Amino acid sequence: MKTSIATVSISGDFRDKLAAIAAAGFDGLEIFEQDFVAFEGGPREAAAMVRGHGLEILLFQPFRDFEGLPEPLRTRAFARAERKFDLMQELGADLLLVCSSVHPEAIGGIDRAAADLHELGERAAARGLRLGFEALAWGRYVNDHRDAWEVVRRADHPNVGLILDSFHSLGRGIPPDTIRRIPGDKIFFVQLADAPAIDMDLLYWSRHFRNMPGEGDLDVVGFMRAVMATGYRGPLSLEIFNDQFRSALPGLVASDGHRSLLALMDRVKRAEPAVAEAVTPLPAPASVDAVEFIEFATSAAEAPGLETQLSAMGFTRAGRHVSKSVTLWRQGGINILVNTETTGFAHSAFISHGTTVSDIALRVPDASATLGRALALGSKRFSQATAPGELQIPAIRGVGGSVLRFVDGISDLGRLWEVDFRLEKNAPGPSAGLARVDHIGQTMAYGEMLSWSLFYTSIFEATKAPMVDVADPDGLVRSQAIETAGGALRVTLNGAESRRTQAGRFVADSFGSAVQHIAFAADDIFAAAEALAARGFQALAIGKNYYDDLDARFGLEPELLARLKSLNLMYDRDAGGEFFQLYGRSFGEGMFFEIVERRGAYAGYGAANAPFRTAAQRRAARPGDMPRI
Ligand SMILES: O=C(O)c1ccc(O)c(O)c1
Ligand SMILES: [Mg+2]
């Protein structure tokens, strides 16, 4: 099936849009009328540019306020259509989108609309053109694809078909299975868009908040399964009106769009194998068994500070790399690497970000299949020369240019620690009870969040939690958690809108997106907090008001409350269970560690505590701000 995108989805001028659409791998595009009108060249020049990029114009749109008008408006609407047919013939576009009318003088009446479309179909046929009727969710009389289909059915013309748009159908809550009643050959074109679940006026939501399939909360997979079941095999086209995308880099939006279509159709194929013969197979979405290691890029000067923190948290040095200046720190199932190389990728990561997480390695069932899926979805491969005998770990570029690696137990990669490291003979020192990585917090500009959320949810078998707003003392930070099935990989994406927030300063100070915090899970956080305190771990001091409020909210046992307070632990609870958090003091460019314990089936990340944690971090960073007694 052909992939396509509407020019309105991408920023820039007509040339920028075409270049980005072609580079992202689309087969064709929808020309949004405004984009053509704003272009300085004529239609033949535009068409030649499109062809020059190896693209095809699959649709010209929109033609508005056509059906059901009284005279003389009706005659005028036909004359307007003829002008657009002239233009389409020069462009070499053969399909026109007619969207349902919002004209204040439109009369309504399904047969009148059908008769108008029939006549327009005759005129289109005379020129070898076709038209498709689309129900806008806010159309005056036609605002549901079921009614649009009835108009098209009654128009009864071979050159008149239906155009479906997932936003208009799903945004109105119309069950997608109603599409299964429509014959596939009468569906002339399918437009796809997702959107976040926000309760607001349909028109405003559609024109400002649409996003790529998989980036929002609509059931675009259910919609496409129904479309495929009709036998439709025409173009799949993204039509995304989004304020953020209008100012984002055209190449990024286009490549995210292409990735979203491939991932969508892969999910459709897996859910509906009988009707998806036309979809190119991809390796299955990867499950994640564990975070195998997290690697810090640092320098000889800054490494001791980091290593002091690791020791204070109960990590012991367990080995060193056979050829590189990389040490391995271990505790429970956690492996941390500290890289002080002065050349190569880790060093450039250190130069550009300061001490930073340069690599994250995930243990997956089949590393080469995961790499294959990621590359097929347009991820950038990463490789760096290794010394003879060392493992070449499959890797791609992730957030902020960092590296995401894949290891498995079915290849030599399972022998990573024996092959690439010389492990200490001595038994490790006593652990502080940290057992595994609970989650990794990556901080970025707000404008990048959708892109990285799509990155994780398209490659992995993962779900995303609803976006939450965190009130930092200096502005809002948006946070979205992504979690693979079973929870072995949990990532929180934190998007900074203002430079003044902790997250915003981190992005500025570390020159771009990066891991800002790592949370380790303890099986007994009270024991862990005591062990850490005994080792000199500097916990973030939480204020007294927080504990008073906690008590008011949850009515905790006085003994529990006193223990939380004495250890600077934060607490949260949801329907599934309880959550405990301990924060370390920030270091480097604003990174910090967190220790958590999840009890029962607690599913969150302590978002309710985040405003008090950011306020405490701000106080700790600037002691001058503390009130004087
Ligand atoms: O917002 C609009 O007007 C508009 C126009 C054309 C479309 O295909 C659409 O989905 C929305
Ligand atoms: Mg549309």
From TrEMBL:
Pathway the protein contributes to: Aromatic compound metabolism; 3,4-dihydroxybenzoate biosynthesis
Keywords, in A-Z order: Lyase, Metal-binding
Cofactor(s) needed by this chain: a divalent metal cation
One Pfam family it belongs to: Glyoxalase
EC number: 4.2.1.118
Top enzyme category: lyase
Source organism, top-level taxon: Bacteria
GO BP annotations, alphabetical order: 3,4-dihydroxybenzoate biosynthetic process
Catalytic activity, reaction form: 3-dehydroshikimate = 3,4-dihydroxybenzoate + H2O
Segments forming domain VOC: 287-409, 436-585
Positions annotated to bind a divalent metal cation: 134, 165, 191, 239
Binding of Mg(2+), residues: 439, 517, 594
GO molecular function, one term: metal ion binding
The family this protein is said to belong to: Belongs to the bacterial two-domain DSD family.
Protein function: Catalyzes the conversion of 3-dehydroshikimate to protocatechuate (3,4-dihydroxybenzoate), a common intermediate of quinate and shikimate degradation pathways.
Protein name: 3-dehydroshikimate dehydratase
Organism whose genome encodes this protein: Alsobacter soli
